Amino acid sequence: MSDTVIKVEGLSKLYRIGSRQNDYRTLRDTITDAFTTPLRKLRKRAKSKGLEGNSNLSALGSPLSADTIWALKDVSFEIKRGEVVGIIGRNGAGKSTLLKILSRITEPTEGYAEIHGRVGSLLEVGTGFHPELTGRENIYLNGAILGMRKAEIEQKFDEILAFAEVEKFIDTPVKHYSSGMYVRLAFAVAAHLEPEILLVDEVLAVGDVGFQKKCLGKMGDVAKEGRTVIFVSHNMAAIKGLCGSGFLLKNGQLVIRDNVDTVVHAYLSEISATTEKKRCWTYRHRGSSIAIDEVELLVNGLPSNSVQSGDRCSIQIRYHALTPESVDSNLSVAIMFFSEGQKLTNLWTNYHNGRTIKILPAGVIECSIPKWPFRSNFLRIDIFTQMGPHLQDWIEECVYFDSYDGDYYHSGIITGPGQGLLFLDHEWNSYANE
Amino acid sequence: MAEAYLFDGNIHTMNDHLKASMILIEPTQGWVSLKLHELWEYRELLYFLVWRDVKVRYKQTVLGAAWAVIQPFMAMVVFSIFFGKLAKMPSDGIPYPLFSYAALVPWTFFANGLNQASNSLVGSAHLITKVYFPRLAIPISSVISGIIDFVLAFIVLIGIMTYYGTFPTLNVIWLPFLLLLALITALGVGMWFSALNVEFRDVRYVVPFLTQFWMFATPIVYPSSLLSEPWRTLYGINPMVGVVEGFRWALLGTQTAPGPMIIVSSLAAMIILIGGAFYFRKMEKTFADLV
Q: Would you call B288 and A117 a contact, using CB atoms and an 8 Å cutoff?
């Protein structure tokens, strides 16, 4: 029996820009507005032009006015009982707005949603935790806020305590907790919520890795029990590991709904396709023989600005010779990877069997990496070229790109942050001690 | 055959259950239902919110719960000196300190409740933007949690009454009703202000002003017997007039039995409460986006 538990039809949400957070009005504002309105309008016009330039927000084509935004526009879908759906999309794509509407925190502007069953929403761990109250007291308070009955909390109390691993400090005010303990306790309460439909927003972005795994495992259990889960995350590995199907949101619209692998792939290529190529090239030393035109990261053969651990990727350097004499000479090329100013590695032709590249009048130099080894990180590439003793093109900050945790070992295990920088191919053996 | 029937029956039960728990989310317009049944379903949350407020109220204060008594007591001392001794204000034959303190106890409950309720939504922004529950629970719990302070101040009132050798009349059984009237008034006005406060933070500055004016518009430093009928009854439009005079009548045995005045006060309080609740519910949809 595959009945629909969530039915969403034409759901839209209009936001006034600036009214989203902490931008409250006072009567004084209303009075000063009378004097500054002409100026404001000018500024807003300039602002909306700026938006057109560097984001897709204006593509929403709000017909109303420049200071409103459709955070969600005409989204329709159905979710069946027991489905585990991952919602992905870039910041501002409407993921959180969708969850907020489904969990009844905010109202849609248009459209409707029908939900059959008890909804538990987890948009944040530890909602309503009070620092002055003890762990025990906060379990009750937080449980009640999440919609648990007192009897239900009492019944699960020991289980929650064991899950959180904070037994010793249960009667200490949580303001004395370490952030790790705090998050563990908060998640433990949330994890024992037993709704028929669970809405989860990015809550695993915190906490230590062992505990994150435990949480993912717990959420996996929830999914296996046949409960419906909607999961929002930027962690593609977690999405792939938990969800069966996925939604891709873009500018408030539902663009793809498919199995999770297809959607994650579409998302990653969307990122690379829509982000303008970031050509910082902050420092460049020009040589006399060749000039680099473009540097690009390719993942599985496609241009991208993000790569997952274990992916096959390459860096392509497009160049042209500046003088006819330089054609056919030997060029040595180095690609340096940095993270937060620290050099992670340097791939240099000279180190690699002392090979050099024979210059063509115009060509592409490609450096292939069969298995991308780095974990979640934000990386930068510098390119350095040299011909004999002469320095040629040397560009700092050629390309910036994201690296995401992937299943490097094909083990099916998802790892979170905090597990170091990189993966290594390795083997495990054991011997008798003789 | 019987099995098939049973199976069929099961499905029906399940569908009925689903129907019962179906939630429809759609844009609302204008005035909306108060959804009091939902508030009832969330009564445990209401209980926990009150319990939390009570627990943390005087954490990290040196004098702790003594503050609940200091506030009305010091006001009584000041009023007794200026209005009682210097201005020779009439006090229906009651010692002035007792006369004013008996009024200050319910008044302080009202004024603090109103203040807490008005700031309650803004103070709970982290809850409002992250989890769903009937928002009315927030101002309601903040007013109710003031009862603990009221009880403490009331114990001191009993002490003062004993000091002056005054014993309450049988009318004391009306006290819970009078307290409820003060609570309803604080909640009614608090709902208006808390909803307004989400959009206009001016409310924060308006409330202390308002309570100050309101106090002098209520017979706390003076008796309402200064007015003659029918003005005295009409004075009951301020619900706190009924509450304060009711307290004096029930506890100190003043001759000014509230009578028709308390009916006027109750009606006024109910109008404020119902109006406030509907206004609050109407504005509720904007809370998460504006707070």
A: no
